[in-house]
Write a structure and sequence with these properties.
alpha/beta; Four Helix Bundle (Hemerythrin (Met), subunit A); 3 domains; 15 strands; about 45% helix
Amino acid sequence: MSKEGLRVFNTLTGQKEAFLPLEPPLVRMYACGPTTYNFIHLGNARPLVVFDTVRRYLEYLGYEVTYIQNFTDVDDKIIQRAQEEEMPPLELAEKYIEEYFADADALNVRRATVHPRVSQNMEEIIVFVDGLVRKGYAYIVDGDVFFAVSKFKEYGKLSKRSLDDLQAGARIDVDERKRHPGDFALWKKAKPGEPSWASPWGQGRPGWHIECSTMSTKYLGPSFDIHAGGLDLIFPHHENEIAQSEALHDAPMAKYWLHNGFITIKQEKMSKSRGNFFLLREITKKYSSQVVRFYLLSTHYRSPLDFDEEKLEVAGKGLDRLKTAYRLLQETKGQAGGQGQVAAEAWSKFAEDLFAFEQRFREAMNDDFNTALALAVLFDFARVLNSLHSALLGRAIDTQEGVLLRKAEAKYVELARVLGLELGKTDSLDDSASEPQLVTGLLELLIKVRQEARSRRDYATADLIRDELKNLGLVLEDTSQGVRWKYL
């Protein structure tokens, strides 16, 4: 399969660029993972699903993806939460790492190639910091080590900020000992009761930014293809990662920087610090995890997504449509064993449609991973499958037609899986999936009731059933062979 044509929006350059990995067919990708002090909320879930989908699409194109997603298990928030729960910080972090995997698995987010943890890479972090000190990019103040942003001449190139404009931002403490307000901690002197490790500068623990620089270097090398994360990480986190990594290695850190937009509530960013968040587990008590994944992919990843339960309801109905088409396809395949009765030109057109759907799907995803448009292609695919089911209803299909139907099924399932959607998967919150015959059975019952009404010349009832089904998206066709139905 051709890998040409993929274009991605690079935050570093502010424009879409052709995707050309450094060492094809290998793609090396790093995505910032969670700080493990609580269950993940819907805002945390978005980058997990988005960049899992990016990875899936790259693999669909034929790339070999090394995907690294870290766990920040050493952090101020973890220490604070551990004190509240009266348990060791690393034990608390381990607890929420396990809970993360439970949530991520439910969302059908595949495990990374490696999930490195800060606590397991302390030796490498200390070596990295020491290298920056030796090169003159860092300075030591009473057991703390700071990065001197003025030493790195390209500081601000990702966030488009100048040193003169820098203000103390997220996770940057105002400290008079700093040479510049934008200088940030590489190593923090130990405080009583906090976890710490021995270093050349005394007992302490790493700063937030150095952790990702070290782990990405360890597993992907000094330069790699994609660095991904939420929009809120551009500054200071990713800006500081670039400064640390490129200062030490004298080489570009990542070629492409991808950032997903926020999930908002009433136009405000969803976050734990604001208290306006919904834990994923609260949402999945009402909506299946597959519906949540569908919802998160229904808007382009760089656009904001305002939380709205009505949108989750719409996502549920959309996923239901895709699953219904898959289920009806299974029924159609089960009609094998006779002489085909669909005209050859109709089958030829269907074969062309299969090719066209894949092309359109790739065009959508090649445009900076436009999952919203890719879902629209799947809906069109589903409509054709439904029409085919209606045309074959009650008929036998021959061997050649069966082969084409199996190809249709394979392609439909393959494209859905690129988005992480499992159309044959049952879910306790999805009635249509757990009761696969229910919709068809109810429809056949209504058709029978309508036919009996027509035989009694009760045309008002017959027309009411027809019209109400049409309002629900189903069309009844009276033919000499009986009643057919299809989706609008």
